[in-house]
Amino acid sequence: MKETPREHGMLPTADGQRIYWEEWGEESGAPALYLHGGPGGTCGQSGYRNRFDLSRARVIGFDQRGSGRSLPHASDPATSLESNTTAHLIRDIEALREARGVESWVVNGVSWGSTLALAYAQAHPDRVAGVVLFAVTTTSRREVDWITEGVGAVFPEAWDRFATHAERAGTGYRRGRDRLVEAYDRLLNSPDPAVRDAASREWAQWEDVHVSIGAGGFTRDPRWDDDAYRLAFARLVTHYWSNDGFADPPLLEHMDRLRDIPGILIHGRRDVSGPALTAVEVHRRWPGSTLIIDEQDGHGGPTMVQHWSEANARLLRLQEA
Predict the structure, then answer these.
(1) How far apart are CA 301 and CA 268, in angstroms?
(2) Helix crossing, 180-187 with 193-210: angle to 10°?
(3) What positions constitute the catalytic site (predicted)?
(4) CA-to-CA distance for 256 and 86, rounded, in angstroms?
(5) Which whole-number Å values give the CA distances from 207 to 65, 168, 203, 257, in the listed order?
(6) Does residue 111 carry a catalytic annotation?
(7) Chain-centre distance for alpha carbon 311
C-alpha cells in the first residue's frame, strides 16, 4: 500500500514561489525537519520519514524552490534562478516553520541538505533544537572544485569524457584554466534545448560515477529517466556550486553560532567525492557535536542510515525531556 503523508500542501512565498511541503507522524510529536540533497533533489524519493519513530515525532519535509513538486520548476528555462539562493531557502524554511506552528525543531540535512542545515542553524540558532547531518558538506569552493575536477584523478576516464563535453560544446572552457562547473552552468542555461539536454545527461553520468565507491560500484540512478527531474537537478546544482553555495563568508567561519546546539555528524570514510575532511573540520569547530565516521560506507549506505535513525532517536529524546 502506498504511504501518504498525514498532511501536505503548497506554501506561497512573497516572491511568487509555491513550495510543496508534507508532514508525517504525530501532530503532537517532537518536531523535526528534513532537508533533501542536490541541490535539485526532492523529499519525495528518499524515504526520509523512515529515519524517525513516527509514533513520537512530527516530521516535516519540503521540496526546495525550483525542485520536486515546488513551482515554478527549474526544468523550465523560463524559470529564473535569480531568487534561488541559500538566503532564499533559509527564508522559505522560516516561513514553513511559522506556517506549521513549530517553535523549534531537530534539523536533518543530507549531502547538500547538510550545507543548508548548517546555514539555517547559523541564521536561526534559537529555532534549532538539534542538528543531524548525513554526508557532511559545506559547499565551499574547495569542495566544489574537488567534486567536479580533483576527483577526476580517481576516475580519469569518466572525467575526461565529462570535461571533453564542455570543451566541445562551445563554452570556451579550457582545462587547467577555467572552472568546469561554471562551463556546465552556462550549458544548462543555454537557449538551445538540445544543448541543455546533452549537458544534463553528461552531468548525471558524472554524478553516478563519483559516488560509486562505497556504493557497490557504478549504478545508473533511475531518477535520471525523468527529463524534468534531470534537467532541474543539473541546472540547480551547477547554479549553487558555481556560486560556492552562496555562502559568504564560508559556513566554517560561523560555527561558533552553534555552540549551544547538539549535533551529530555522520560521514562515510569511502566517500571519495566528499572526503571526510569537511566533516572533521565542522566537528572541530563545533564543540557540541558528535562525529561518526563509518569506515565501510561512501556517500550513504546501510550502516550510515542506521546511525542516522539512532541520531534522531537520541536528539528527539532530548527535545521531549
Answers:
(1) 8
(2) 140
(3) 111 (nucleophile), 271, 299 (proton donor)
(4) 20
(5) 21, 20, 6, 33
(6) yes
(7) 18
- The catalytic residue among 111, 140, 242, 289 is 111
Give the containing element (helix H, strand E) for 130.
strand 128-134
Told to judge if 299 belongs to the known catalytic residues of this protein, a careful annotator would answer yes
- Catalytic residue among 210, 239, 299, 307, which? 299
Question: What is the predicted pLDDT for the residue at 46?
Answer: 67
Q: Give pLDDT tens digits for 102-111.
A: 999 999 999 9
> What is Dmax (Cα atoms) for the chain?
59
Whether omega for the bond prior to residue 262 falls within 30 degrees of 0, making it cis, is: no
Cα 46 to Cα 94: distance, rounded to the nearest angstrom: 23
Please count the CA atoms within 13 angstroms of the CA of 55 that sit on its side-chain side.
0
Surface-to-core class of residue 191, CB atoms within 10 Å of its CB (0-12 exposed, 13-18 middle, 19+ buried): exposed
Domain boundaries of the chain, sorted by first residue: 7-140+246-320, 142-243
Strand pairing category for 30-35 and 105-110: parallel
Nearest by Cα to 86 from 111, 117, 44, 45: 117
Neighbouring CB atoms inside 10 A of 63's CB total 23
pTM exceeds 0.90: yes
pLDDT of residue 165: 98
pLDDT, residue 221, reads 84
Sequence-distant (≥ 6) Cβ neighbours of residue 229 within 8 angstroms: 42, 75, 223
Question: Active site residue: 271, 273, 283, 297, which one?
Answer: 271
Q: How high is the mean pLDDT in each 10-residue block of the chain (321 residues)?
A: 84 97 96 97 88 96 98 98 98 98 98 98 98 98 98 97 96 94 98 98 96 79 94 98 96 97 97 97 96 95 96 89 64
Q: How many CB atoms lie within 10 A of CB 4?
A: 9
Find out whether 26 and 54 touch, Cβ atoms under 8 Å. Answer: yes
Look over the chain and give the mean of its residue pLDDT values, rounded to a whole number. Answer: 95
pLDDT score at 319:
79
